[in-house]
Amino acid sequence: MLEMILELLVVLLALYVGSRYGSLALGAISGIGLAILVFGFQMKPGTPPTDVIYIIIAAVTCAGMLQAAGGMDWMIQLAEKLLRKHPDSITFLAPLCTFFLTVMVGTGHVVYTLMPIICDIALKKGIRPERPCGVASIASQVGITCSPIAAAVASFVIISSANGFEVSNLQVIGITIPACLCGLMAAAAMSYHRGLDLDKDPKFQARCQDPETYKYMYGNTATLLDKEVSKEAKMSVYIFLVALGCIVLFSVCQIAGCDIRPEFTTGKVDADGNPITKPLAMNLIIQIVMIAAAAFMIILAKAQPKKAVLGAVWQSGMVAVVAIYGIAWLADTYFSNYLEEMKAGLGDIVTAYPWAIALAFFAVSVLINSQGAVVVAMLPLAYSLGIPGPVLLGVLPSVYGYFFIPNYPSDIATVNFDRSGTTVIGKYLLNHSFMMPGLVSVIVSTIVGYTLTMLFY
Questions:
Q1: What is d(CA 125, CA 89) in angstroms, rounded to the nearest whole number?
Q2: 438/188 Cα distance (integer angstroms)
Q3: If you placed Cys at 168, which of 174, 248, 251, 303 could pair as Cys (CB 3.0 to 4.6 Å)?
Q4: Quick one: how far is CA 283 from the chain centroid?
C-alpha cells in the first residue's frame, strides 16, 4: 500500500510540475514521472495513445492549412457581422460564436482573433465586457467535446469501442452539443447582469478619468470587417466543410444500418471457412479525410505549409500531441498496474453512484490542461471499474475543469484583451471572471448530458 501511494505521488507531482511550466512541459515532465515508475519502481509500462495522436495530427494539419489560407479569418468575419448586428444580445451570441468555431475546427485556439472584437463591441455598447468575455472564453473550450474531429471525441469513440460500447462521433456529439448548449446558455443567463454596470462601477469610472486610459479603451476599434477575403480563403472553408460533411456522412450511414465504409479481410476465417471482413475504423476515416482536405487546401486554396506551421492552431495542436502522449502514457502505466486494487476499493462506490466518475474527470482536468488527455488517461480506468458506456457519455462534459485555476492561454488572453479592466484574475487567484460561468456551464451540461443518455440509451 505504501508503494502504491508513493507511486501515485510521483504521478501527481509530475502533473503538478508540468502544469506550472505549461505548454510542452506537461508532456515532457510526465516523461520524468514515467521514467521513475518504470526504472525506479519497476512498473510495467502502459500503452501510449498512438491512435488518438494520429487523429490530432491529421485534424490539426487540416485546421492549420485552413488558417494559413485565410479561411478562419473569413469565419471570424461572419461571426463579427452577427455580433455587431445584435450588440444588445452579445452576452448570449458571443459564447455561441466561440462555441461553434471550436466545434467546426476542433480546437479552442481559433478564438483569439474574435475575443478582442467581443470586448470592443461590448465596451462601445456600454455593456460590462466581463459578461460576454468570461462566458465566451469558457465556450471556446466547452466546444471541444462537441467537435467530431476533436481529440476528446475521437478518444472517447476509440476507447469505448475497445471496451464494448459501440458509439460513433456523431452519436457522441448528438449528446454533448445539446447538453453543452444548455450549460452555456445557463452560464450566459447568470452572466447577463453580472457585476456593476459600467456607469455605476467606481473602478471603471476612475479609469475613464485618465485621458490616456480613456483613449486606450475607446480610441481603437478591433475589427476584421475591413480585411479583404480572397476567393482562396473561401475555397479553404468550403473544402473544410466538405471534409466535415464526409465524416458525418460515414457516421450517419453507420447509424442508419447502411454502412458505406470499405471492408477488408482480417486474415481470419469463420466456421465455414469464409474470410472474416471488418469495416474501416472511423478513426482511420477521419485521418484520411482530414489529410486529404489539407492537401486540397494546398493545391486549390494556395495554403502555404510554412505559414501553417507558424500558425497558432498548428502549434497549439502539436503541443496537445506531446501533452497527451506523456500524460496518458504516465496515467495508463499507473492505473494498469493497480487495476485490481482500484476495482476492490472503488467498486461499491461506482456501482451505487456511477455518475460520481464525473467528479474524478473534473478533478483530473484541473491539473491537466487538455480534455483529450483526461479522456485518454481516465476513460480506460472508468470502463475497468464497470461503469456503463452511456453513463460515461453522459458525463463527458465534466472533462473540462482547467478553468478552475486561471492559467490557460485563452483565459489569460481574454483578460489582456479586455481594455476596460473588468475581466480579471482576482487577488486570491480563484476569484476570477471565469469561475462562475465555468462551474455553471459544466454542472448544467453534465446533468443534461447524463439525463439525455438515460433517456436514449
A1: 11
A2: 10
A3: 251
A4: 17
Measured CA to CA, the distance from residue 120 to residue 80 in angstroms comes to 11
pTM of the complete model beyond 0.70: yes
CA distances from 148 to 106, 243, 244, 254 (A): 7, 11, 8, 15
Interval 6-20: pLDDT, tens: 998 998 888 888 877
Which strand (E) or helix (H) includes residue 215?
A: helix 211-218
Neighbours of 312 (CB within 10 A): 16
CA 435 to chain centre: 17
Beta strand 263-269 with 275-279: parallel, antiparallel or unpaired? antiparallel
Nearest to 405 by CA among 357, 438, 359: 438
Measured from the Cβ of residue 128, the count of other Cβ atoms closer than 10 Å reads 26
Specify the pLDDT at position 347.
67
Q: What share of the chain is helix, strand, coil (3-state, %, to 5)?
A: 75, 5, 25
- Residue numbers of the chain with a pLDDT score lower than 70: 22-23, 347
> Per-residue pLDDT tens for 326-380?
888 888 898 888 877 777 777 677 778 889 899 989 988 988 778 988 898 889 9
Residue 76 has, within 13 A of its CA and on its CB side, a CA count of: 25
**CA proximity to 189, closest of 131, 149, 241, 265:** 131
Tell me phi and psi for residue 70, to 5 degrees.
Answer: 95, 5
